[in-house]
């Protein structure tokens, strides 16, 4: 395999198609982010209409998460080997097909199987998003691009529940919950057609082979770790779950040893261990993992607090999150384009402190207003939290990938997304302790609201503590991402290599 990385720049300037390509891959990223959260809102409708059991309902969400997390590193490496555009198109095409199968499912078993397929296809599609950006855009433009990416992340994080609530309430064409999957069809088809035209191809500049043993080890290790975390609370935290999680550490240690040997033999490991010698990448991965824990705890308990504890409808709960979403999007754009170039990692650390302040304000308001709290009273802490999150998400991605060699951008992107999913799964596991652990097993109807409100406040205290840990971990990040440290030299590179199909 030979490199396809050749200059797109000409005397007239850089190929403008990269901005169309950016819009396409960002839309795909948004589609995935929304799909992760949109299903939770529609669960009551799915259970009522399909007759799914409680265990099947669990697998509708867990199946996607397991297939997605287990396949991300492999998906990223496949892009490096076979071409990021090619794998992206395979992923978005498969994701669209799986969405159709979900929407047309005739029984719960078909829906669960289709969700597994959807997660696997997302694992092919999502790693290519950041690697296409990293490989296509010159260094001095990536800050702006990652700012846009942070805005998309913020918008997708809250838009899923809102969109799910609207589609379920509107019951378009009598489809009920099916519309949350079928809405992906026109978006996916458009992305497939436009992506084949505007996305430029790129792959690693030297021949690589897919490490099948590495694929087996990383998949086994992640399944052994994530499966007990996702199903643990439902099954009563059995002993085999703890054994499985401990065994996962052994498998992942074996993976590291094997990948080190594989790298020395033929230079084609699944996980590029040399990436962890890049300080910005190693430190950023640690921050991303712990940040995923905080988000995993907050978003689940927040939804339960509003819909079960306060008794709000799905639509009311979804609309409550709009100020948060807007704040994340605005702050993300400002952080990368205006603040990080001037203040470096202090912006990320300020984001952790601001988000923690918003969490503590929310904790106080929940106790002060009790069960009579309104969406308007929640708006202030949500905006403060959103600003803090926006200051983190976009520059953190920038800091992690800024010094990564271009030929390993797919592997790095897969690792980045994988540790985020692992962090979220760990957060979901902690919910069983910090939230459900404070709620009695048998509650009278009049006890549900107060019990869920107390559990929510307890969880917020833990989230604030995790954000404090993130603040300390951020001292390991470079004071200024390499992207900005390059200064005028990067900004004047008019011949930066881009990619052609």
Could you describe the 3D structure shown?
There is one protein chain. The protein is globular and about 65 Å long. Helix content is 78%, strand content 0%. The protein has 18 helices and no strands. The protein has 501 residues and is mainly α. The model is unreliable at 1-13 and 483-501 (pLDDT under 50). Helix 1 runs antiparallel to helix 2.
Jot down its keywords.
501 residues, mainly alpha, 18 helices, 78% helix, 0% strand
Helix percentage: over 70%
The largest β sheet comes out as: none
Low-confidence stretches: 1-13, 483-501
Q: Which geometry do the CA atoms define? A: globular
Q: How many angstroms does the end-to-end distance come to?
A: 15 Å
